[in-house]
Every structure is written in C-alpha cells, then in structure tokens.
Amino acid sequence: MTITENISSKEPVLVVVQLSGGNDFMNTVIPFTSGVYYDNRPLVGIPEDKVIPFTETLAFHPSANALKKLYGQGKVAIIQGIGYENSSRSHFRAMDIWHTCEPNHIAVEGWLAKVIRQIDPDSKNPVTAVNFGRGLPRALAAPGVVATSVGDLDNYGLMSDIEKHREKEEDLEIFRRMYTPAIGSGMVTNYFGQTGRNVLTGAEILSESPVNYSSTVEYSDNPIARSLRDVARVHLSGLGTKIFYTSHGGYDHHAQEVPNHARLLTELTEAISDFMNDLSEHDAAQEIVILVFTEFGRRVKDNGSGTDHGSGGGAFIIGENIAGGLYSEYPSLEPSTWLYGEDMRHTIDFRGVYGTILEQWLGLDPKDIVGGDFEQIKPFRTTLI
Q1: Which residues contact 203 (CB under 8 A, 6 or more apart)?
Q2: Is the pLDDT of residue 71 over 90?
Q3: pLDDT (tens digit per residue) in 99-130
Q4: Mean pLDDT across the stretch 344-369?
Q5: Closest among 63, 157, 134, 144 to 110, alpha carbons compared
Q6: Is 181 domain-assigned?
Q7: Total domains, the chain
C-alpha cells in the first residue's frame, strides 16, 4: 500500500485506546481452521459455527461484529503478532515498556509525552493531549510536559471547585501509586517537582466542550463508550487537541473468560463504531486515526477457566484513511516455535507500529521517540501531512 494523496488542510489527530489486562488476541482474531487452536482451547475456544470469518483461515470473535463491519469497509488494519523480544509477563513492566519504548531499562519519559513536546514545545496549549480516565498514563508523562486528564466530562461539569480540587489530588495520588513501583518514589517526586500541578490542568477548558455538541448517535452506557463520546465532543469543539488517550479495563481473563471477553469486545467494538459514525456525521472523521493496543497476548493453551499471560498479541489501527487488511504475520501455531513452549512469538516490534503512526500520520521523526529504527508497515490509504 502507498500513501496516495494529501486529503485536506485539517491536521492529524491520534486517539489511543489501551486494553488493560492483556487482551486475548487469539480469541479476538481467531485461527478458526486450526486444529491446534481447538486442541489447546477446549474451554475458551470459540466454536467454528459461531465465529465471523473474514478470510479462509481467520475470523472475528462473534461479539466483535461491529469491528467486522468496519473491517469490511476497509477501515481497520489488523496488526498481527505485535510485541518485542523477551516479552514481559508482568502487567506493570509490560505496560511500562509499551508506554516508554524501553524494554531494557526503566525510563522516565512516555513516548506520547515526547510527541507532545515536539508538537507544543512551549506548553502553550494545556489540552494538546487529553486523557479520559483517572490518573495519567505514563505514555503522556515526562518532566516539563503538560497533559490534561479528566475522569468524565459530564460529571466534571457538575462538580464544585472543592470537588474538582479533590479529584485532581486523587488523580495525582493514583499516578504515584501506579508508577512508584516502576520508576521509584524519587523519580515520581522529581517528576511532579519539575512539572508541577500543571500536569493535570486544562479540565476547566474541556468542561465547556459538551455545550454545543449534538449528535444523532446514541452511545451505550459503559466506560469506553462514554470516554469515546467525550473524545468526540472535545475534538468537535476545536480546542486543538492532537493526542487523545483512554483505557478499557478488565482483559486479564485468568478465569471466566468466555462471558467476560464477549462482553468487553461488544462494548469496545460498538463504542468504536459509534465514535466513527459520530465523527462522520460531523465531517470530522478524516483527521482521526485510532490505535488500539494491549500490553501482551495470552498463552495458547487455556487453563480450564481462562488464559494466562502470554505474548504475540495484536493491535488495530482504525480510521477513514486506513488501507484495511492484515499486516505482519499471524504468529506460528506450530508448537515447536512457541516462546517458553507455550506462547505465540511476536512477528513485528511494537515500536515499528508506533514509528509508522509517528512518521506516516503525524509527520514526526520516530527515531528518538521510539528509541531506534524499526520495521514499519504501510497502513495508510491517505494522509494529512
């Protein structure tokens, strides 16, 4: 695929959706003709007559029908086998690696914080990057870089000043609890000392976003749907936000995977579909690209109730300007190739996927952001740069 045209004077925007807990890629994009899949997943394997095929060998989970429709419209790039060498099975460490692009040592700066620094070096706009959720993702955090975090636009607008102050203090404490185990209390204190309370500023600006928003799209009442609706409202308000971030939690399915994974995939894929429809209704979809990622995949064999931490996961890049299809290679299902004798091996480094988005979509040199040169893919049909 090649980039064929420059489509408008609009500026590119990136929306990142983090699936927290380790999404089971093998049960999201299913190798439904593989005997190995069914032999190793007697409990969590999705029956062949229930899956939604989209190639001769691959199918979507039946609860991901909304994603299948977007894929059929050519708007979804499926990144197969994403990961990195010596994949960590620790939630803390794995997510830290994805957030900082540093697999070999603890880093202080998030990869998106480096992007913010390039886009807005003087921190003139406190809403250049916005997180919807509690705390602040480490991907957006770096000394001297300002990002804004707000739990929920509607609730925030109803809070008193005292309640808003209390929520900001709670967010700061959440940040401390989340990242002190990874980078140490000294670094966390140093981070706040250099960046100050401005790290969570901008919420007052965002609170005005819902005022002029209207849409015929009815989002579901769940956290990821509300967050993506908030992304749409802020984007449509024209505040100059270039990076949006939000999370969808609950993917750590060691037990009860069958019902819980189905529910989460329904919530996620329908929310993304509604978000895309909302943007299209407002002629605002061309400037948006969505990256959906998770910290690792799950092991090939189920454990009798769910699946345990693994590697060789998957990601999605979604948008109007995406050349939809399969990218990289599905990890080998041959047992002799499995990592640790039980994990699918990665087939593309996640830093190459980040680099793809940085260079081809945002027009930035990715080398210093991701820490080197990594193989890229070509998922864009059109570009804004």
Answers
A1: 148, 149, 150, 156, 164, 168
A2: yes
A3: 999 999 888 899 999 999 999 999 899 899 99
A4: 98
A5: 144
A6: no
A7: 1
Which residues make beta-bridge pairs with 243? Answer: 14, 129
SS3 for 188? helix
The one-character DSSP state at 339 is B
**Tokens found for residue 167:** 């929520």
Is position 151 within any domain?
Answer: no
**In the numeric block, which tokens belong to residue 369?**
């952001």
* Residue closest to 96 by CA, chosen among 209, 182, 202: 182
* Strands 325-327 and 129-132, bridge-based pairing: unpaired
Output the domain CATH number for residue 37. 3.40.720
pLDDT of res. 161: 57
Asked if residues 289 and 322 have their Cβ atoms less than 8 Å apart, the reply is: yes
> Looking at the chain, how many residues does it have?
385
Nearest in space to 134 (alpha carbons), one of 110, 150, 154, 148: 150
How far apart CA 331 and CA 324 sit, in angstroms, is: 19
Owning domain of residue 309: 13-123+217-370
Instruction: State how far the Cα of 270 lies from the Cα of 284, in Å rounded to an integer.
Output: 19
Cβ(328)–Cβ(79) under 8 Å? yes
143-175 tens-digit pLDDT:
888 888 887 787 654 445 555 566 666 666 666
For 39-51, the pLDDT digits (tens) are 999 999 999 999 9
pLDDT in the model for residue 166: 67
Domain assignment present for 267: yes
H helices within the chain, ranges in order?
35-40, 65-72, 91-100, 111-119, 153-158, 161-195, 203-206, 223-236, 257-281, 350-356, 367-370
Compute φ and ψ for 298, nearest 5 degrees. Answer: -115, 165
- Average pLDDT on 52-62 reads 98
In a domain, 382, yes or no: no
pTM for this predicted structure: 0.91
CA dist 149 and 134 (Å) reads 7
Q: What pLDDT score was predicted for residue 179?
A: 57
